[in-house]
Amino acid sequence: MKKVMIVDDSAFMRKVVTDLLNQLPDIEVTVAARNGKQALDYLTKEAIDLVVMDVEMPVMNGLETLRRMKQQSAIPVIMLSSLTNQETTIEALALGARDFVEKPVSLSMIEKEWIAEFHQKILAMDHEVGTVHPPVPTIAQPTKLTQNSLPVSLDALVIGASTGGPRALLGIIRRLPARLRCPILIVQHMPAGFTASFAKRLDTETTVRVQEAVDGMRIENQVYLCPGDYHMTVQQGHLQLDQREKRHGTRPTVDYLFSSAADYYGPQLAAVVLTGMGKDGTAGLRQIQAAGGYTIVQDKETCTVFGMPRYAIEQGIVDEVLPLQGIEAKIAQMVR
What we know:
Distance between the termini: 49 Å
Oligomer: single chain
Strand content: 15-25%
Number of helices: 11
Helix content: 25-40%
CATH topology of the largest domain: Rossmann fold
CATH class of the largest domain: Alpha Beta
Shape: elongated
CATH superfamily of the largest domain: Methylesterase CheB, C-terminal domain
CATH architecture of the largest domain: 3-Layer(aba) Sandwich
Order of helices and strands: EHEHEHEHEHEEHEHEEEEHEHEHEH
Number of strands: 15
């Protein structure tokens, strides 16, 4: 039985989340706190497996509580967020929050998609969690799975990520050189409205331009982030956005970007799959490798959720496995 603590200044929201989570198998909400200060006090007395916490609270807000929690324990935290505090939510992910869910905006949403999404995130922590969080700095030791080598002339780099991806991407962006020799195209599973804030946050960490992609945009040597609730593909040197059906239950989908990039860039393409749950990215990696491109995934030890990389490795379409620090260094070298 997973013991959960709810932290929210709204008595209504505490009751709603408690009642919903208590309906799930192997989940029990054992503690409800009104603010971060009270939550930290409870953590010294109660055995808690997961914290579900609001972002904006009086006395002590979610960010400060998260900072203090991460100094004391590795208990996973899922943030409760809304469209009015996107930037704060992104900062929480950068500080080490495992994931976030949007606060329900209607009773029908509470009863349907919201609880299903919440349950999926909790299940991912049980079945595919990595062994280290946050990653411990190490000297990267690559694991080569094939004899393939990086393209001599790289025309593009594509990256896919899900749970834990924002923090990993921040580390990658910070290591980028002042100028890129090729574009970097990123799909991060994230709802509509939050990707714009995330792109702005990434842009503050580097001299390279980072922006949320716009339909029809010509691809230049900079970083593009796919907007939430859209798929992004490469079409004749331009970015195309569409809202076709979800794949793997998500929109955006890593596979659509990877497959279209493989068609356009062929052997002059490299791809990286970072931490995340599910199988998204594997089909695209297969197509990239078949076209002569190079494929890299993050290792188990530094993943928040070892789902997407694990499945790709099992399918035999990965050229190299690296810890996050190794991926940061590899990408900096590739695009320099």
